[in-house]
């Protein structure tokens, strides 16, 4: 029996990353059939020996790459040798590639398989354990994962046994370069993929494959309105009714801290009279499934009275999509003269910062009102505001001490 499989390795320069490294691809063929996929290894072009199809030199990096390529070649040849015995001349390139990727193993747990099961389960638990927004985000992550498998690895699924740190680092780079996502978005996407991987690991008892993975560094900017900007926005007289409505919806969250989904899911049943005989919002936060209790400030109550609709569904505020909301807020910022990127989420940030923390509400209470799972989330998110508050208090204390010192009678 004659070996039919041909194996070659090459650099795909068209997919060079920001470091100037190109992915090393493997191409296998039998006759006119061809299949190529990324090996997960990267190398600078002048360090690649095109004739020998391996990395140049004897550096640790070169040795690691060459060992990996030799391992791939040996595994492919072993698979062909097995088929030559079992199937004689009747095996195909698809047979070899499927065996190599583990796609033909019915018992093998695969990434896409587990992803689909997770999404199916989430769809059944909408309104109970998951929100529609969370489901949408997981579906988007699923689409990115499938795109990565197809575009970079030329496969539609992958067994958990083939997942490694190169896979997840490659995915990170793909999202950064090919999808042009920001580090914060990429970290969220990979965080959700890792949740799926943990499920798969629990299925077959394998080791978690991404232990050495490090998230990208994020430069987070806390955007919120100052007291002056709040007043400017509240006092502005809009010529268009739609902009006035969106301004009011935004201000409702400025004075309640409700996220977009919660603000537009608010119903009469969520407005209760509290122990202090005042009106409170009492509902379950969709993101954390934690109960939130928020006292209704006068400004928020006025907006409820202005827009309350007694429709069949009983929602307090008329519905508007988050996309339109943010689009109109951009328009509003330009008209009013606020030099910040306004989104509905900045209303929640403004509630925590300008309305609460700058008015000396303790951070423990701020955390409770925001519905955070624990206070460390609040401290991390609003460290900048807390530090400014501490600085202001210390300046006041310093002035008080100086004043006392000046009025102190000499002995």
UniProtKB/TrEMBL annotation:
User: Taxonomically, which superkingdom?
Assistant: Bacteria
Give the keywords, sorted: DNA recombination, DNA-binding
**PROSITE patterns to which the protein is assigned, alphabetical:** TYR_RECOMBINASE
| DNA-binding recorded as keyword | yes
**Is DNA-binding there in the keyword field?**
yes
Show the InterPro entries listed in the entry: Arm-DNA-bind_5, DNA_brk_join_enz, Integrase-like_cat_sf, Integrase_catalytic, Integrase_recombinase_N, SAM-like_dom, Tyrosine_recombinase_XerCD
Task: Identify its protein family.
Answer: Belongs to the 'phage' integrase family.
Q: What is the lineage of its organism?
A: Bacteria, Pseudomonadati, Bacteroidota, Bacteroidia, Bacteroidales
- CDD domains per UniProt: INTN1_C_like
Q: What residue stretch is flagged as signal peptide?
A: none
**Protein name (record):** Site-specific integrase
Q: Provide the Tyr recombinase domain boundaries.
A: 220-395
